[in-house]
Amino acid sequence: MTWTDEHGQPRVAFNHTRNLTKATESLLGICKGLLADRQLNNQEIVYLDTWIRDNDIVLGDWPGSVIAQRVRAVLAEGVIGADEVADLADTLSAICGIDLDQGIVSGLSTRAPAEPTSEVVFKGRAFCFTGRFIYGPRHTLEQEVKNRGGWVQSRVNKSLDYLVIGALASRDWAHTSHGRKIESAKNHQKAGRPMVILEEETWAACL
Questions:
Q1: CA 166 to CA 152: how far, in whole Å?
Q2: How many helices (H) and strands (E) does the chain have?
Q3: Phi/psi of residue 10, each to 5°?
Q4: What are the pLDDT digits (tens) for 53-107?
Q5: CA gyration radius for the chain?
Q6: Which CATH topology does 126-205 take?
Q7: Whole-angstrom Cα distance, residue 69 to residue 57?
Q8: Domain parsing of the chain, residue ranges
Q9: Which of 91, 100, 77, 99 is nearest to 40 (CA)?
Q10: Cα–Cα distance between 83 and 194 in angstroms, integer?
């Protein structure tokens, strides 16, 4: 006999989702606590990595999977550089929505411009990136595309297949190059060009 919840969903799946949600909330709370003084030190990064390893359920969801990837990248070489620490602190602050005076909207962007999809084809496809990204610096995302047989272009034009929107958005995005690229992609879609606008989360999940 399979136990179900009040919505008819399998109890195991329900419990996993609930536990994942709680763990993700705890992770974000820890990140906020570590950044309470607007700084991040080596010991705190090691603690964060240890917590994630002990609570690896967070690897199954966004943004836990990306936070883990960024933390482990910083620790990978055994020597933590000041620039890496500063970049990680900025990223975590943006994810948690701490730097509101910098224009971050609750840490994550709105999803209105993007389209749902379960598959992204990389080989032989053209990608353009716009906005700020949780996954890493833009050149890191561009290299991921190139490693999979795709290519990257800086502008939105009729040869573009995918426009990827960074998960960190500012309140005034509509008035920046970020917003203009989205508007241009929408216009190409209206003209019949099969161009796809993706959230960073969707893009990363399809790697």
A1: 15
A2: 7, 4
A3: -55, 135
A4: 999 988 877 778 888 888 998 888 777 888 888 888 888 877 776 553 443 434 4
A5: 19
A6: Rossmann fold (3.40.50)
A7: 14
A8: 11-102, 126-205
A9: 91
A10: 40
